[in-house]
Design goal:
Shape: elongated
Number of strands: 24
Number of helices: 24
Structural class: alpha+beta
Distance between the termini: 30 Å
Radius of gyration: 34 Å
Length: about 800
């Protein structure tokens, strides 16, 4: 045992290049694997723990109050497949007509653009029942009429004491916000007492019933749909008017972290494959270069098992060091990603699970051990006399045919010798080619993914689609994700915007000083020198029978075809009566492009044709976009709350806004420049891509370096003879570099299309984790010049690894080389 240990220690210390290659290879494999597995596990933990703690509803269903009795709905609790249920609760979708702040001021938002609220009547006992426990973030639960608890995610200021007026309901009731609550699946926008909801919904046709279900099987959309179908089948036809699965909410909650998993997993698999190949090259090269030493060891009494153990040990020692460093690096790289969700569900700071570190370390060391075992098995079978006699000479006749064929080519002799060299050790050359190919695959995948992220930033990094944003009423998005609020009604309550989104620079004073006038703002924009084109948008929330929760609707005033979002399928809407929706809408409504959607604006409805599916990186809600004329029949009184302005070429945006400022202030508006700014997720992704790509490329280069070093040492006497016959140092370098250049070119031809295929496989899965499909625009990002440059990547990796040993061989003296054994 002590003798084997001495051989292991001396081998690790003597072969510094091989040791460095194995350490870096394992560091790359372990860090990428820890990132992929750790993020996959950690990203699911916060939501799943909070969902279990609050007994979240797998299925939220709404029923027609005039078509079914409460006893019939209550009976669905005992249906097969239903583990638990809560309800029926009376529910109503309505829109406040005015919002009064606690100090008496009011929100400066047109009535028709206040959010649509889904109100549910639940008592305090119901709110802490078996299904969908509502956790109070602050305040208390309503105990009587005139009180409401808003959902923590509702698009209204999170202020206790806020008063909501519903002038369209009988008696024009006013509800005061007494608290904020959090439902895991956002089953309602707000909760009132059951008696209050009954008073609000005096007409049966204006309200419905809500049931909340936990299912025995709800891991997939198919299982949730099966549960929904079973419940619907047990009730009269047409009773269920809408439903919502918890899975889209879960996907949205996990999107910030799970979006990393597909590409990190791809890098992890590439690194693991390279680990096996490079370690196999290193160990087999060490065995091949030490055949004479192995013969001496066996002559001294080493058994075949001891020889195998010695060379497996020489692989495991540096691999153990690399594993430790890789675990540290992988855990550190995960910190900024996991920090994004540390407090989202009040579950504390997130870290990589210890069992993930243990599993990855065990798997990588097992992989290393098996690779070393297979490579060193031949050494254990050699007889001592055979090993000493054969030494480092290649098998007779190996590579002779290749040398004769290349010798007939019209090429300089050094190049012909170099091209034939890989055929002397075909197995080792094939493994080296595979390793370099994986390096090219990694580089191609990384460049493609980087180009995709850059295009995403250009398309979605800005707050809008124009060069300049004009906002009515000081509602430009605040940096913390909550819109800045301008109040009116009391002196001293005016508050300007909290800052521009997307990196833009606001231009204007402390905010608008008077009532917003969108028509005056539009006229000023149209008359301003430098205006090329513009359009206005208004956002509101409506309900749709196919969607259980509120639907975010953006209405466009003017021609916005020049600023359409990237389309996944179909086309941008061409006028009133047409709409485009996001992927989440199509999945939630179980429909497709070409279908229709009916929008309900509080008693009035309109049916629109879905003509396209758009891609929106920012969207975390179910979203629909249409022409403002499509919603005219709903009587919402919509007016643009923002204008996107495209400037003529050569127009300076800041100077344009400075000239327009007096007219904007007179119209109660303010403006800012609109500049793309990548979000934190994009920045972290690009950093990870760069780090992992450099590590994989470095491993490939070091793999080539190790192979060439072993080959040069094995052929040092041959180079001495060639030098004695007149070969110059430059020709010596050409022979050595050419011996790997062919391998590099072959690896490039195979690696580039493989990397493109990997990119086309991973990017759609990254989109799927965020709940959206991906347009072809974000896949076809590598043009011919980029592909040709990547094609040379294999050649660059091979030449970079061969230059140092080639320089050593070229600089060695002929006499020294001839005396070498």
């Amino acid at each position: 045992m002590a003798a084997v240990g001495r051989v292991v220690r001396s081998g690790v210390a003597r072969r510094r290049v091989q040791t460095a290659v194995m350490v870096l290879t394992v560091v790359t494999a372990v860090s990428a694997s820890v990132l992929a597995a750790g993020l996959l596990v950690a990203s699911r933990a916060p939501f799943d723990r909070a969902f279990a703690r609050q007994a979240g509803a797998h299925l939220t269903a709404r029923f027609d109050a005039g078509a079914v009795h409460t006893d019939t709905l209550a009976a669905t609790r005992s249906l097969p497949g239903v583990a638990a249920a809560a309800g029926p609760f009376r529910t109503l979708s309505t829109r406040p007509t005015a919002v009064t702040l606690p100090d008496g001021g009011s929100l400066n938002i047109p009535d028709g653009q206040l959010p649509l609220l889904t109100l549910v009547g639940r008592s305090a006992a119901d709110a802490t029942g078996q299904v969908d426990k509502v956790i109070l973030v602050d305040g208390r639960w309503p105990t009587g009429p005139g009180e409401i608890v808003l959902d923590a995610g509702a698009s209204l200021p999170p202020l206790t004491g806020l008063k909501l007026t519903f002038a369209d309901l009988p008696g024009a009731p006013v509800l005061t916000v007494v608290g904020r609550g959090r439902s895991m699946t956002h089953s309602a926008s707000g909760w009132v007492t059951p008696d209050q909801l009954t008073a609000l919904a005096q007409a049966p046709e204006s309200a419905g019933y809500q049931m909340l279900y936990r299912l025995t099987a709800a891991a997939t959309e198919a299982e949730v749909q099966a549960g929904r179908d079973a419940i619907s089948a047990a009730l009269p036809a047409g009773t269920m008017t809408g439903s919502q699965s918890y899975l889209p909410v879960r996907r949205s909650a996990l999107a910030d972290t799970t979006v990393y998993v597909p590409f990190v997993a791809a890098f992890g698999l590439l690194a693991l494959a390279m680990s096996a190949l490079i370690i196999g090259i290193v160990v087999s090269g060490a065995v091949g270069a030490s055949t004479w030493r192995i013969g001496v060891l066996k002559a001294l009494g080493f058994t075949p098992v001891q020889v195998v153990r010695a060379y497996v040990g020489q692989a495991l020692v540096p691999s153990a060091v690399g594993t430790g460093l890789g675990l540290l690096l992988g855990n550190l790289a995960a910190v900024p990603i996991l920090h994004q969700q540390a407090s989202a569900y009040q579950v504390g700071a997130q870290t990589i699970a210890p069992w993930v570190d243990i599993a990855v370390a065990g798997w990588v060391l097992l992989l290393v051990g098996l690779a070393a075992l297979l490579a060193s098995a031949r050494a254990g079978r050699l007889r001592a006399m055979d090993a000493i006699a054969v030494g480092r000479a290649p098998r007779a006749g190996r590579g002779q045919l290749a040398q004769r064929l290349t010798g007939r080519l019209p090429l300089p002799r050094p190049i012909a010798l170099g091209l034939a060299a890989p055929f002397a050790h075909p197995a080792r050359s094939a493994v080296l080619a595979a390793a370099v190919c994986l390096g090219v695959v990694g580089a191609t995948f990384a460049v493609g993914l980087g180009a995709t992220l850059t295009t995403l930033t250009e398309d979605n990094g800005a707050d809008g689609r124009g060069d300049v944003l004009i906002d009515m009423g000081g509602m430009l998005a605040a940096g913390d994700g909550v819109a800045a609020v301008e109040t009116r009604g009391k002196p001293g309550n005016q508050a300007g915007p909290a800052g521009g989104a997307g990196g833009g620079s606001p231009v204007g004073g402390g905010g608008p000083a008077q009532e917003p006038d969108p028509r005056a703002a539009a006229a000023a924009i149209s008359a301003a020198p430098g205006t090329e084109r513009f359009y206005g948008t208004a956002e509101t929330e409506l309900s749709a029978p196919a969607i259980a929760g509120p639907l975010q609707v953006t209405a466009y005033d003017g021609d916005a075809s020049w600023a359409s979002l990237p389309m996944i399928s179909g086309r941008w809407f061409g006028g009133p009566g047409e709409a485009v929706v996001d992927t989440r809408f199509l999945r939630a409504a179980n429909t497709e492009v070409g279908g229709t959607v009916t929008l309900d604006g509080g008693g009035r409805t309109v049916t629109l044709r879905i003509v396209g599916e758009f891609f929106d990186l920012h969207a975390d809600t179910i979203d629909l976009r249409t022409d403002m004329g499509s919603l005219a029949s709903l009587g919402l009184g919509l007016a643009p709350s923002r204008f996107d302005v495209d400037l003529r070429p050569g127009t300076d945006a800041v100077q344009y806004l400075a000239r327009l400022r007096p007219d904007l202030e007179a119209a109660g508006a303010m403006g800012q420049t609109n500049e793309p700014a990548p979000g934190s997720t994009i920045i972290i992704m690009k950093s990870l891509i760069t780090m992992l790509t450099l590590m994989i490329a470095a491993v490939a280069v070091l793999g080539v370096l190790d192979t060439v070093v072993l080959d040069v040492r094995r052929r040092v006497r041959d180079f001495g003879i060639l030098k004695a016959l007149g070969m110059t140092p430059r020709q010596t370098m050409v022979v050595i570099v050419t011996s790997v250049a062919g391998i590099g070119l072959l690896a490039g031809f195979v690696g580039v299309p493989t990397g493109i295929a990997l990119h086309h496989f991973v990017v759609p899965r990254m989109g799927a984790t965020g709940g959206t499909s991906v347009p072809a625009r974000y896949l076809d990002v590598l043009r011919l010049p980029e592909q040709l440059g990547l094609l040379a990547g294999g050649l660059v990796i091979a030449v970079a690894g061969a230059l140092a040993p080639a320089g050593w061989a070229a600089g060695s003296r002929t006499a020294t080389a001839l005396r070498s054994e």
